Amino acid sequence: xxxxxxxxxxxxxxxxxxxxxxxxxxxxxxxxxxxxxxxxxxxxxxxxxxxxxxxxxxxxxxxxxxxxxxxxxxxxxxxxxxxxxxxxxxxxxxxxxxxxxxxxxxxxxxxxxxxxxxxxxxxxxxxxxxxxxxxxxxxxxxxxxxxxxxxxxxxxxxxxxxxxxxxxxxxxxxxxxxxxxxxxxxxxxxxxxxxxxxxxxxxxxxxxxxxxxxxxxxxxxxxxxxxxxxxxxxxxxxxxxxxxxxxxxxxxxxxxxxxxxxxxxxxxxxxxxxxxxxxxxxxxxxxxxxxxxxxxxxxxxxxxxxxxxxxxxxxxxxxxxxxxxxxxxxxxxxxxxxxxxxxxxxxxxxxxxxxxxxxxxxxxxxxxxxxxx
Length: 373
Prior knowledge:
alpha+beta, 8-stranded mixed β-sheet, 3-stranded antiparallel β-sheet, 10 helices, elongated, Guanylate cyclase domain-containing protein, Nucleotide_cyclase
């Protein structure tokens, strides 16, 4: 028997909440998962994958010569698109399908019973990491959450290859059974950064990344005057704050992470916001906060849909402008929910082919109070 270890990119896919489904539903979902995975591999130009059934998931070992850029870019994008297409028909219920995934690479051997190797064990530990489970729970509209090993991050992700954006990844501690003191990287397609994770450690940008400064995890927080900047984000430049979200005459702190979205009511990029005590410092209503968060989520999902070409360039640009209008009209100097409602309805007309965007816009519309349009 040849137990010579050989290098393979390793993919572990695990269905979220599989144990709560009936046996017929689990079988139905497994068939769909295999079909989606095979199509995503073909779309990415990956051939020769060897798969092994894991009951509620799949182990796939790719040939050693497969470019890891194809795995981290086109394959992930294609799999996410497959899952989103499925979600348009089965968003909730026993046939809904969301995945946690682990992507790793290492030495694997084969005996008469299957694949074996320490690197394979590591991949299975990754997909069960509590931080990944927590992120999947927090990212309510996501259909896929990835745990990427530090090996792949250092070799591929941090180099900013086309179609692979290192700023969308967050590093977390990785300890499980025989593994201790290591780190891995979490990404949720469609989100600027994975939700539900603790604030980055001051030194987390030191894990060998080339983008530590851009992610803002290696530098100190900075302060800026809140006067005249009420509701302005540091990353995207869009105004999301309503009257009194920050207050005037006070200060706010933010990390240097790009593309961040202000979470009304006290945080920016997971950092605390210090509000002033002058006019306008009263907290925004809970309904207003929820609406602004929904619009911020729509902006992230729209950006992801445009990258996947689910929304054409012209419609995507127009839809982005309507989100700008909705945020502006709900801001301190806006004309109120009536105008924001019109903007969101125009947004709906531009993204009718992307069901997850339609659902998000309808939720935002439902949160707006009634009023004269």
